[in-house]
Amino acid sequence: MKTEINQRQVFFRLMKYAKPYWKSILFAFFLLLLTTAGEVLGPILVKMFIDDYLTPRTFPVGPITALAVAYLTIHIAKVVVSYFQLLKFQEIALNIIQQLRIDVFSKVQSLGMRYFDRTPAGSIVSRITNDTEAIKEMFVEVLVNFIQSGFFLIGVFVAMFSLNVKLALFCTFILPIIFLIIRTYRKYSSVFYSDLRERLSQLNAKLNESLQGMAIIQVFRQQQRLRNEFAQINEKHYKAGIRNIKLDSLLLRPATDVVYVFSLILVLSYFGISSLNSPVEIGVLYAFINYLDRFFEPVNQMMMRLSMFQQAIVASSRVFNLLDEKEHEPKQGEANIEIEAGEIEFRNVYFSYDGKRDVLKNISFKVKPGETIALVGHTGSGKSSIIHLLMRFYEFDRGDILIDGRSIKEYPKAELRKKIGLVLQDPFLFFGTIRDNIRLHNKEMTEEEIIRAAQFIQAHSFIEKLLGQYDHQVVERGTTFSSGQRQLIAFARTIATNPKILLLDEATANIDTETEEAIQLALEKMRKGRTTIAIAHRLSTIQDADQILVLHQGEIVERGNHQQLLAKRGLYYKMYLLQNGLVEDVEHIQHR
């Protein structure tokens, strides 16, 4: 019962997407009514010909010609009207699915990073593509058929009652039996189709993971393992599909065919018994059997499409679960506040990704405008987490982060994105041109600003050598460029926005030494008047930082400039000796 209620709620929610098109839907229903009327009138005209002219063997030319013309006209008109009716319903369905896909895609854009941390990308893709496609099939195929069949069934029953009330009443007992079959099918198919959609989602997730990591798969010869894992998921998808096929084979067409045969026996028995007492009109017999056949044809169509309906309802439930996802980006203020100086302060900040283990513990530091602070530490010490919190990818648990003396929560998201520039260790390039990747479709950015940004970061020289220069095509993720070239384009993209605050997450790691020296000179110019936070593994790149924070297991264990930290002979000193190849000195310190 609960499943039926949930399905009903999902269905009505889905129907809300049809509300903006109610005028078109009414027009389509009117055309559908005309088509149904044509279907119902056909057997009545044939009945009139058989009983009034064929049986008495009277063939007046005028009336028979009129009947023939009426019959042909009705059928031709039905074909024409049916074309426009189907076209209109298809148009409505495609508009609804278009809006639904936009809503789902927009929702994905607003979700917080925690959601993407726990949800495979392939699963999200499956909901936006496969699940919405299943919903489209429901609007295009199922609802049109259900509504058309509903209209036609009403017309058939009206015609049956007009021919023989008693026999029509007998035929109404068919309806509860069909309803019972439908209810039983829906009860079990909803479970089976949920499993089938989930297996399809897992297939997409595994496929996406394999495509993204193809280089690693081939290098480490993991093809067989991935093939086996994919085959296991595919086998589960196959078994889920087989369960659905068995259910369809039992409760769809075969079950209704059995009911049809018993109904036909009932009708023929009635007319056979009636013929013992009084003559039976052949036309009435023909019309009744014809209507009975036409009654079960839409029922069979509905039953066959019930499978698609169940798939669509399950798919809709998955899509709405995504639309109802509560893991949004951290909330931001709506007041018109601007970042002016760019002073940053962390006050006793605690943060956890999973809500159980703190990855940042009591983080406190201050960076004044124009200063550069560097974050160093071993992998997993919490350096990138500080950047993530400052970019508002995640909400911190306790403490506060201030910019210009105001909590970061008070600033509008647009202001943070505009005034904070971020360059990651693994830069992401979009499909398009180099110009598009630097500008990011900011129409206010001029050609001169794009070139100036590239020149500033030493990227202009290699871009000029490319075919098309700034119009050179960038393939997906920029895989045709070297790591250093991708990083330079990402640098130019950030510098072009002229941010107040600059965040560098190991931004020079993939750049050769010669280019890195040129970029360091450019960064020195950039840092003037800007607040800069840089994560670095190579300590040689941050020796001129105003302050260096050394993190260990989520805590700041040392702070000071390069010379001060070396003088402390602590963790920073050990890291420095290791990077300079002075391993024996490190071992001597550890023994002491």
Write the layout of secondary structure elements.
Layout: H1 2-15, H2 22-54, H3 61-110, H4 113-118, H5 121-163, H6 165-171, H7 174-212, H8 214-219, H9 223-251, H10 253-277, H11 282-323, E1 344-352, E2 358-367, E3 372-377, H12 383-390, E4 398-403, E5 406-407, H13 413-419, E6 420-423, E7 432-433, H14 434-439, H15 447-456, H16 460-464, E8 473-474, H17 483-496, E9 501-505, H18 513-526, E10 531-535, E11 547-552, E12 555-560, H19 562-568, H20 571-579, H21 583-591
Parallel strand pairs: 3-10, 3-11, 6-9, 9-10
Antiparallel strand pairs: 1-2, 1-4, 4-5, 7-8, 11-12
The CATH class name of the largest domain reads: Mainly Alpha
Question: Could you tell me the mean pLDDT?
Answer: 77
Give a short account of the largest sheet. 6 strands, mixed
CATH homolog superfamily of the largest domain: ABC transporter type 1, transmembrane domain
Uncertain regions spanning at least 5 consecutive residues: 1-5, 586-592
Tell me the number of structural domains: 2
Please state the overall shape, judged from the principal axes of the Cα atoms. elongated
* Count of helix runs: 21
Q: Count the beta strands.
A: 12
Helix % is: 55-70%
Rg computed from alpha carbons, rounded to a whole number of angstroms: 36 Å
Biggest sheet, spatial arrangement of strands? 6-9-10-3-11-12
CATH architectural arrangement of the largest domain? Up-down Bundle
Q: Compute the separation of the termini in Å.
A: 73 Å
Q: What structural category characterises the helix and strand content?
A: alpha/beta
In the CATH scheme, what's the topology name of the largest domain? ABC transporter transmembrane region fold
- DSSP strand content: 5-15%
Domain ABC transporter: 344-578
Organism: Thermolongibacillus altinsuensis
GO molecular function: ABC-type oligopeptide transporter activity; ATP binding; ATP hydrolysis activity
Keywords: ATP-binding, Membrane, Nucleotide-binding, Transmembrane, Transmembrane helix, Transport
